[in-house]
Specification:
Helix content is 60%, strand content 10%. It is mostly helical.
């Protein structure tokens, strides 16, 4: 895999984590924990924790097996925006300060009938993280709007959508 591709994916994930960090610095702990109406099973904190669990599953993996199934699910990240912002910073530091990861990885997958290992690469998983993070940030943006809280304009919008919108102006 092209090192510039790996770097671009690292940067994309870093941008998303910085956006998330900025939001975490601007939200109250009370709003962060609110889970009501159509979002009673998962408020902002739960989505943020879910995003960061997936990031740490890849970035803290042993370099061979990535296991998204046995995530940390740290309740502190889900209830304290300052703790979540700190976790974002840790993930950013790992993204920016680690060398090229092994290209060949496997992801442990679990389904009702059992489990297995799926061949993948560090780059593919970085791309997955970006897509997954944007998806959950979009859900967070819906929750923010439901709670009548401000939402940054590009928050939860895919990079491809932003590029398309910029080219069609």
């Amino acid at each position: 895999m092209n090192v510039s591709c790996t770097q671009a994916l690292r940067e994309e994930n870093t941008i998303l984590l910085r956006q998330l960090q900025a939001l975490l610095g601007a939200i109250t702990r009370t709003d962060y924990q609110r889970a009501e109406g159509p979002f009673e099973r998962g408020g902002i904190g739960k989505h943020v924790r879910h995003i960061l669990d997936h990031c740490s599953a890849l970035l803290d993996s042993d370099g061979e097996v990535v296991d998204y199934e046995t995530r940390r699910r740290d309740a502190r990240i889900e209830t304290d925006p300052a703790a979540a912002a700190g976790s974002c910073e840790q993930m950013i530091q790992i993204l920016q300060n680690t060398g090229v990861q092994r290209s060949k990885l496997v992801v442990r997958n679990v389904w009702d009938a059992g489990e297995g290992l799926i061949a993948t690469s560090f780059e593919r998983e970085l791309q997955f993280l970006s897509s997954h993070t944007v998806h959950h940030m979009a859900l967070v943006s819906f929750i923010l709007r439901y709670l009548e809280l401000p939402v940054p304009e590009d928050f939860g919008v895919a990079f491809s959508t932003l590029r398309y919108e910029a080219s069609s102006r």
